[in-house]
Amino acid sequence: MDTLTTPSETLKTLLIVDDDKPFLQRLARAMEARGFAVDTADTVADGLAKVDSQAPSYAVVDMRLGDGNGLDVVERLRDRRPDARTIVLTGYGNIATAVSAVKMGAVDYLAKPADADEVFAALTRDPDIRAEPPENPMSADRVRWEHIQRVYELCERNVSETARRLNMHRRTLQRILAKRAPR
Fold first, then answer.
1. Which of 17, 81, 91, 114 is the most buried (most CB within 10 A)?
2. Which residues contact 34 (CB under 8 A, 6 or more apart)?
3. pTM score, two decimals?
């Protein structure tokens, strides 16, 4: 026999927008198990279309997608449904993108790889309660490496331009880019 759902449970619609299909499927299954009615998209265009057709009450959006910036989906959702709770996921965490995400309407910003428990906690946390500091935050070396990688990508993988913008010697930058990411 089916259990009856309350009106608040029927409003727990969740849109997950991420171009990493295995991650998208795992997170969707995990969030369905936590009581959300989940819809997924793997492009900005698909995410925007789903927001336009039926704006969800919750969203998890990857910052960088193959066809654009996930913040476009966050902004559209904020315009369509101001009460929606959105979090942004990214592998390129830095202060500037976190500020942009929050200004666009996100309630939290999580670095990948974020697990389903972290995502669920961020989506359902009381807005008046401050988030707990992470158990295993990125090291300073990792944050530096992520920032360099982000600037490098924004400069279309041009080493000379990236070095100029970061105010570092080109050879130093090349050595950093040749190494593996620090933990």
1. 17
2. 116, 120
3. 0.68
